[in-house]
Known about the structure:
Chain A is α/β, with parallel strands linked by helices.
Amino acid sequence: MPSKEYVGLSQINGPLVFVENPKGVGYNEVVEIITENQRRLGQVVQISDKVAMIQVFEGTSGLTVDKTRVKFLGRPLMVKVSDEMLGREFNGIGEPIDKGPDILNGESRDINGSPINPASRMYPRNFIQTGISAIDALMTLIRGQKLPIFSGNGLPHNRIAVQITKQAKLKGEEAGNFAIVFAAMGIKHDEANFIRESLEQSGAIKNTIMFLNLADDPAIERIATPRVALTAAEYLAFDKNLHVLVLLTDMTNYCEALRELATARGEVPSRKGYPGYLYSDLASIYERAGMIKDKNGSITQIPILSMPNDDITHPIPDLTGYITEGQIVLNRDLNRKGIYPPIGVLQSLSRLMKDGIGKGYTRDDHPHVSSQLFASYSKVQEVKALASIIGEEELTDSDRRYLRFGEAFENEFINQGEDEDRSIEETLDLGWKLLGYLPKIELTRVSEKEIADHYKEIKEI
Amino acid sequence: MIALDRKGILYSINGPVVKAKNMTGFMMHEMVFVGEMKLTGEIISLEGDSATIQVYEETTNLKPGEEVLGTGNLLSVTLGPGLIGSVFDGIQRPLDVLKAASGDFMKRGVFADPIDLKKSWNVQMGKIKDGDKVVGGQVIATVKETESVIHKIMIPPNVSGIAKNVKSSGKYTVDTVLMTVQTENGEEEIKLYQRWPVRIPRPYSERLAPREPLVTGIRVIDTLFPISKGGTAAIPGGFGTGKTVVQHQLAKWSDADVIIYIGCGERGNEMTEVLEEFPQLIDPRNGRPLMERTILIANTSNMPVSAREASIYTGITMAEYFRDMGYNVALMADSTSRWAEALREISGRLEEMPAEEGFPPYLASRIGEFYERAGRVKTIGDEERIGSVSVIGAVSPPGGDFSEPVTTGTKRFIRCFWELDRQLANARHHPSINWLDSYSEYAVELKEWISKNVDPDFYKMRDRIMQILTEDDNLQQIIKLVGEDVLPDNQKLTVRIANIIKVGYLQQDAFSDVDSNCPLKKQDAMLKTILHYADRSSKLVSKGVAVSEVLDEDIVNTLMRMKENVKSDHLDEFKKIEEKLDAFFDQLDKKYQVTTEA
Ligand SMILES: Nc1ncnc2c1ncn2[C@@H]1O[C@H](COP(=O)(O)OP(=O)(O)OP(=O)(O)O)[C@@H](O)[C@H]1O
Ligand SMILES: [Mg+2]
């Protein structure tokens, strides 16, 4: 199709430019915005017979109304996908930035992808052992799941993400056919370097594709970054049969870029100024995780987001939680106590674990032990609140045992080394050991048989 | 008849909302095909020569200047044998057919008949002969659609007249004309299927009061906050509090004849879960796979938002159709908030003046219109049939804040409110339905049925349970401040009994083999047992016996675990538990010389 070129803009407004009287221009079509010394990419976000509204990924500074040329390319934003991408680094819209060669062979694909037909999905059931007790026992990661980390400034989400990528394995399956897709949106150079170096150390870098839009890169470009990354991931998973782990960080920066654009467009805002379609927009990213019948690969997503002011009800974590299949919530108090990984287990959840743990998957007692640990640790919070009022000495014996259990649970179960890789059996045994602090009668979530098999009361507390 | 050669011209595209001119002669809510790709759309406003259309598919690459073609029909669904067991998108396109046509990823502009019109069914004709008078809603034939559902072929609601060319029983395809009807306005062909516009409720002859519970097998619901057949309920709760699990449980175990499950803007995997699980799960009432009474609508969060808006109408119209056959239909919509957000998004693109939180001012009235399509009715037709549509909608309030517009708007129109509690969910007490803030307005109306069919004392026990829980709530306030130890013994006992009720009764693991579904008879027996314990222990404690004496570890354990230990088909085991309790208390009575009155 011959591409159409126009000279001159009718208006420039924040990240948006407007072209009058466009002919034959399609909705969502990509455009090149050309000035004397630069070529930028943009996308048609609204079109009528009178005017085309275009968002410019690299920002509009330096553009002039009269000299700017706009070339409509007659296609949506595409990225060329191929195996050659493994081990390479790209910018937020998929252009190589590692001084390596251009991607020559490969197929260009629309970065927006298409929804997986729900009738084609295969329900994910395979347990991924991360070696992190809190995750494996209580919010088990399943291959094909989307399980975000809700974090905050200064919390060690990157270290946890790296530990997961290093240790993640499927029981009884050899490593090999896996890949990592890493998409950075607005994060600091230091953070990106940390992740790159860690992947280099573990040797995973050759199976990794990195898409980097860093803090000083154009903000609007971030809107494309996760989509470019997931297009590559879908290729690896469903064309090349790889098990792909996708890290998306930081989704909060992504959402802010979206808000900036919505504001520029003069849209009616919903909560905290974010657009009303933030849910659908995020879903178009997160729902690109999963497994497909008759295909061997999978996409497991670990999006990372920082909760503004540690507020889990903020629209970004809130809407994310409504879409993803659980969440790993980091907790500042635990972090202050020096506990790593500082996972607030009560607020965390894995919705897919129920079908991927227990008999035939992990160990028979897993579902009940995890339920018991949740229930008991939740009771610890009540007892702590009470103790802070009436003093520990006034507590009943049973309550004192809860306090002791709580301490041990945080220091021995949640807490572990950054290189410590615990097997699921070790993790569950540890859970049982700590439940020994509690009187038997309190253990209502585990069966009598499980108690007989695993429970050993710790008399001295 | 509307001319089919009308053609509009697109002039503006803004996401799922497009505008076209040259649209004179098109109808409001007419289904149209948009652009070269023939994307399905619906006209949502007409002004002069120009129309606004919501497009049910992605609009990428649509260009001003492309054509809009009319269909002459309002957005409608196809109703006939073949619906049961299917999975549709929001505008009733069968997902397996789309998959066969375009692969694992959804493509645009693919058209597919909702049900296979060329599939043959064994049609058993009724008594109607040539020359008989027939009216709308009258059953003319039956088809055994699945082992669980007999599909009744009905005269469409707006047709009546004299039957002609009536076929005899036999094997026919869905598009076979079974008879013609000579109406005042000409002849109407009656096939195995009919079509009905989704935004117009199907008519009934009379609305009836609720009488019978929709038994769900979930104790906290059936015992404390029951819903009736034909009733409405909302399940509001923040993310991860258990809305979907409750909806799935209802789809599995509620005693409806037909289930319509709408995944409205939610996760793809949740639909897959139903698709993989339901064919394996057995309906306890007839031993057949649950899929044989279930229809799914899957318009997941990443599928087009306007089709999400349409999905609940598609679902409820199918529900009304089965209701008209005289069935009890239960419809679950997960989540109505996503539907409301679809309304908001489209309204925003139309640049309508927003009311609260950006939602359009007509949000509440739309919610009301939807829930009003639920109900227990006397159907139209020649004979008396009673059918019902029960509607259970999940609500996903932003930030878990129940004062937001969708929750408050819904509360005005529903009669059961099952409020999910973040604290309970975090402690993994499921279902996390808050027993103090939830309510059911049907409880009173269902008392007679329960008394007659389950136990005349059921409601008395229900009231006592509620009373203990309320008292416990007050005591918990004190405990938070000073600890349990300072409470007098009788209050300590109340707290302990409340704990047995919470852990041993209200908490119910959806994924347990034994306890996932709890029939009313088992609920009744459990209540009896717990209250029997409460009676006898209170008596001792009131006579000055120490609370620790009655809190025997083995006895308490038995009460906490009977939900798992007694299977629904072995209810006689409750006798043994009662004997065990009696033996225990008799011995205590004797020890403390408390006499049991006759
Ligand atoms: N009755 C139950 N028994 C056991 N576990 C439950 C029960 N209800 C909920 N859960 C647990 O809670 C998790 C979350 O439940 P669910 O997916 O229904 O939440 P939701 O309210 O639908 O969340 P969202 O709004 O994000 O969709 C489940 O994956 C399961 O682990
Ligand atoms: Mg849900």
